[in-house]
Amino acid sequence: MSLNEIYTELIRYHNKNRANKKEIKDATISERGHNPSCGDDITLYIKIDKDIIIDAGFTGSGCAISQASTSIMIDLIKDKNINEVGDILETFLKMIRKEMQDENKLDLLGDAFYLRNISNMPARVKCVVLPWHSLKVSLEKL
């Protein structure tokens, strides 16, 4: 299977998979992310216990890329320490901005690695990074 086929299947799967699309009533923090230029609008919910993200979810709507990127990110950050999540976040954003110096760090990204080629589609970059920027704002508030 080619990288493009994996990317397409991953977007399709995560866009349809609703396991992470949920409001968490007792979330430690919630953060809205909105992209007015295309209409993507999500709210990220994160529940933290002893510096570990024990649950996360999101609500909202948007294109398949923003919805899938949010779901992939949530799968990646659950059960991780806040510091580890910070490393994952920075690695992802550097990958999308094509600023990654240490290619070995890309292993941190799991399935999010397959979103790499979106950096070649300027109109879609805002879609893929929306949840990640919401996560960054959330972590800064802790």
Automatic annotation (TrEMBL):
Source superkingdom: Bacteria
Domain spans labelled NIF system FeS cluster assembly NifU N-terminal: 7-120
Stored InterPro entries: NIF_FeS_clus_asmbl_NifU_N
Protein name: SUF system NifU family Fe-S cluster assembly protein
